[in-house]
Specification:
Distance between the termini: 156 Å
Shape: flat
Helix content: 55-70%
Number of strands: 0
Structural class: mainly alpha
Mean pLDDT: 75
Radius of gyration: 50 Å
Strand content: under 5%
Length: 336
């Protein structure tokens, strides 16, 4: 085989790979664009029914697709890529901090080039108001089951609840809508018929609010820009911590000095050594023997008088005996 024959298969394989997208990046972007083009608009409409805010719905779906593009190998291998993106959009739209301070929300204005939504019909407005009055878990369960058309098991898995819990939420949501909107005719209908009525009404309500998502390449560019910003922020925070640690280490010239240790308590309570009596010298002993001993006469013995001792001996035990004195007598000291 000649060298030309050996090179021909390689050239043909390179041409095939180029026609298919080179290193696979174009194929991935094409798959992402196809997924985005089919499901971005319906997801925005569902998010509008979930939140009642068109701008938040568009932002939630756009952020969900940006996250999906950043983790595209994982999303592409998922059995339900649309469910992955839908769950991310719902979690972003229903974040607790987005429901705080409703008075500070900016007014809902259409973007440049986006047609303004037509005024909603009175019955559609009443249905949307009733749906938004539901608690968030009930609202999400109702929208997934009766709006999107998922089964009970799929709905329970997406809301991260058990099947009986999801069934209870769905039942309470239908009862609330039947009470708030009697014109729907939900009372007295079997559960299957109630689901069909709500599916038709929610679908019509979502279709009455057109959604124009941004182009797919803008979403991919925004995802890559966010990834670069996150990386730079991480490196910047790490460098800042390193600079602060270096400044602290340089600001302490002598380093760390441990506090002085206190003396041990056992040393202050050490027993004193026994004193050895000193033997006086011979001249000092002779002087001490020649000196008159005045110590015994200087100390006056203290003893009780005789009548006190007698009274103490003859008295009853436990009581002191005193002499009885006539009335008006005065005590005088005994003069010996």
């Amino acid at each position: 085989m000649s060298e030309h024959d050996r090179r021909q298969p390689e050239e043909s394989s390179d041409a095939t790979s180029e026609s298919r997208g080179g290193n696979g990046f174009d194929c991935s972007s094409a798959d992402f664009d196809a997924l985005y083009g089919v499901h971005a608009g319906p997801l925005i409409q569902q998010a509008v029914l979930l939140t009642g805010r068109a701008r938040l719905a568009r932002r939630a779906v756009e952020r969900a697709f940006q996250t999906a593009w950043q983790r595209w190998p994982e999303v592409r291998a998922d059995p339900d890529p649309v469910g992955w993106v839908r769950a991310a959009a719902y979690e972003y739209a229903l974040a607790p901090w987005r429901r705080l301070f409703p008075g500070l929300r900016p007014a809902e204005r259409p973007r440049p080039g986006t047609p303004a939504p037509p005024p909603a019909a009175p019955r559609d407005h009443a249905l949307l108001t009733a749906v938004l009055a539901l608690p968030v878990p009930y609202r999400r369960t109702l929208l997934l089951h009766d709006g999107v058309g998922l089964g009970l098991h799929e709905t329970a898995a997406e809301v991260e609840a058990s099947t009986p819990a999801a069934t209870g939420r769905l039942t309470h949501a239908r009862e609330f809508l039947a009470e708030q909107l009697p014109e729907l005719g939900l009372k007295g209908l079997p559960p299957d018929r109630q689901g069909a009525v709500l599916h038709a009404r929610l679908g019509a309500l979502a279709a009455s609010r057109p959604a124009v998502p941004p182009p797919a390449h803008d979403v991919r560019a925004g995802a890559e820009r966010r990834a670069r910003l996150t990386t730079r922020t991480g490196f910047g925070a790490t460098g800042l911590l390193a600079v602060v640690a270096l400044a602290v280490s340089l600001g302490t010239p002598d380093g760390y000095r441990p506090p002085p240790r206190r003396p041990a308590m056992a040393a202050s309570y050490a027993p004193a050594a026994p004193s050895v009596p000193s033997i006086p010298s011979a001249p000092a002993a002779a002087d001490r023997a020649a000196a008159p001993s005045a110590a015994p006469s200087a100390v006056r013995p203290t003893h009780r008088p005789a009548h006190h001792r007698k009274a103490g001996r003859t008295g009853r035990p436990g009581k002191s005996r005193h002499r009885s004195l006539p009335p008006g007598a005065r005590l005088r000291p005994d003069v010996s």
